[in-house]
Amino acid sequence: MRVHDDADPKFSAMGKSKLAMKRPSTVVFRENPNKAQKTNENKTVANAKNSDRTNISLHQRRKLLPVYILRKRLLDEIRRHSTLIIIGETGSGKTTQIPQLLLQAGVAGSSGCIGITQPRRIAAVSVARRVAQEQGVKPGKLVGYCVRFEDCTSPQTRIKYLTDGMMVREAMTDEILSDYSVVILDEAHERSVHTDVLFGVARRAQNLRKLKNLPSLKLLIMSATMDPVKFKEYFQAPALYLEGRQHPLRIFHAVSSQQDYAFAALATAFQIHREAPANEDILIFLTGQEEIEAATVAARQVAKQLDGQEYPPLKVFPLYAALPTHQQLEAFKPSAPGMRKLILSTNVAETSVTIGGIRHVIDTGVVKARTHHPTTGLDVLRVEKISQAQAWQRAGRAAREASGKCYRAYTREEFEKMKDMPIPEIQRCSLAGVALQLLAIGVDITTFDFMDKPPKESIDVAVNCLEKLGAVKGSPPQLTTLGRTMSLFPLDPRFTKVILASVEHRCLEEALTVIALLSGESIFMDPPTKREQAYNARSRFASPEGDHVTLLNVFRAYQSATQKKVWCHENFLHHRNLEYGSEVRQQLAALAERANLEKASCGTNTKQLRKAFLEGLYENLAELQRDQTYVTVYSKQPVTIHPSSTLHGTKPPLLLFTEVVATGRCYLRGLSVIDPAWLTQKNIGPGKRD
């Protein structure tokens, strides 16, 4: 199938985008007859189709979901078992309906809460809103949600959707999760760090209640795709299979490999736009905010050029984790009759959430993942291939409500070479934060019952890191008073150490600001067509001390601006990312107050801020060599200053970095100039602190 004509003038607007730098040859797709999922044309599906047409009430639509149809058998099984694994196909209604059925049937008792965890904030918020709507209540009363920066619950809340990270934090102050009668671990196949920790924490809470003769805790583990044998063994529980509302799904693979997957995806989207009927919306999976923003600009340019022609009007929506919740929810609204919606998303749209109207999915086959290398001690961020399980999850987004098509921007051979399942995050990330959280709950990470135990080397490195930061001591490791304070902050322990060290260096205000900005996406815009203006705007805030002080300069100017949105636009800054940074800062400031940290500002003496950073990130140092290249001090890894850094083009003898980004070469991002004399003052350096 031909989906893009290079000579077509309708695509000329893309020439201005950085996505057009490597124009691919024509993207040709071939349908995969073996892998195309067949529909189960039963009565339920026929009814579901009619329900869409006649726009029947929400209540009647619920009755068509497989979970509702099978509710009696499902409730019997849930009552019989203290732990149950539910494998429910996409569209079965498990995430929205099971909590409502449990409440209605009295499984949670007269006052117990049903907690449903989600790996992502957007899923927790949107599903809670949907369930509140079905219950005919406002979110925050009977049905609520709790995510970072937003607690929309009350004492009356009986159904509570929350991110798995939030439930882990709740367990730190309440190890038996006493607020809950039922805990549902949804999207268990995602295997995020917090999900894996929660598996063990929830099981432990269940056992502790049994030992103390307290009311029991019921555990439900739910997913659309998982390895049932592994889950059954770990939880010592039976598995129940639910069929979904299946709609026909056709899969097309690219005939040849694509060099520029982002451009190939956009070209495919506009070919679909020219051929498909209105209101058949399109979803493209990309890797991160920067890529999505660039693609959004390019897509809007093309859409503008097509305006007034015979094609439906096109509205383009970005979707990624750092977007404020209200903007994320914009993408979920149905497109107006006669229009089309194009959503450019990271893997936040991969699971849980049904985005109404999607009939075409374009899967680029890649994801941005952070991997920790215990041997070098570095966290490396790189774009990598997804697994086959993720590819099927993505494809399934096209057939949630009606028949759909998935275009894979990779060949069938490339698909077959992909791993079956993604590597659990716990096996590839830094475990220092996990170790600290577990110790705060009262659990030793070295003996914790993980479903997939992380490598011993990673655990040793994590405990060693916490010892050096002064958070733990002894064997088995015990939390120190400092460690207990550190566990209050939902941050990498090294960043928390920076905050605590900033008290001594009299720069707490500045440390909170910079760490808040580092915990989100970049605040600097890099429009492909206005690179020079953006560079000039950035240089107004640039500090010879490095990127951390530059971030501080930007935030101070942002705070004093009256028309913040206009000011950001003029200075090529991301308003929403600065807004997000402000929210994070407020939360961190509240936590600092709770920890009784003394407020102080270093004013213009920003050397103090760099000294505080050195205390937390002392292992993240790179030294200038005789040949004018940089090598990391601890792991002797050759590295280069990232072009986006304020220090690009300069050669300070010693640098502190925040992260390493691998794109062929290893680039350092988030830099500060360090005075070598500070290392001896604080007894920091290779071989020290051991």
A few lines on this structure:
By secondary structure, this protein is of the alpha/beta class. The protein has 25 helices and 24 strands.
Please, could you describe this protein's structure?
- With 690 residues, the protein is an alpha/beta fold.
- The chain has 3 domains: 9-38 and 248-425, P-loop containing nucleotide triphosphate hydrolases (Rossmann fold, 3-Layer(aba) Sandwich), CATH 3.40.50; 58-242, Rossmann fold (3-Layer(aba) Sandwich), CATH 3.40.50; 488-681, no CATH class.
- The strands form 4 sheets. Strands 5-4-6-3-7-8-2-9 form an 8-stranded mixed beta sheet, with helices on both faces. Strands 1-10-17-14-11-13-12 form a 7-stranded mixed beta sheet, with helices on both faces. A 5-stranded mixed beta barrel has the order 20-21-22-24-23.
- A hairpin with a 4-residue loop joins β18 (472-473) and β19 (478-479).
- α15 crosses α16 and α18 (493-504) runs antiparallel to α19 (508-518).
- The protein is globular, with a radius of gyration of 26 Å.
**What is the top-level CATH class of the largest domain?**
Alpha Beta
Strand order of the largest sheet: 5-4-6-3-7-8-2-9
By helix and strand content, what is the structural category? Answer: alpha/beta
Total strands: the figure is 24
The portion of residues assigned to helices is 25-40%
Could you tell me the radius of gyration in angstroms?
26 Å
CATH names the topology of the largest domain as Rossmann fold
Going by CATH, the homologous superfamily of the largest domain would be P-loop containing nucleotide triphosphate hydrolases
Beta-strand share of residues: 15-25%
What is the arithmetic mean of pLDDT?
86
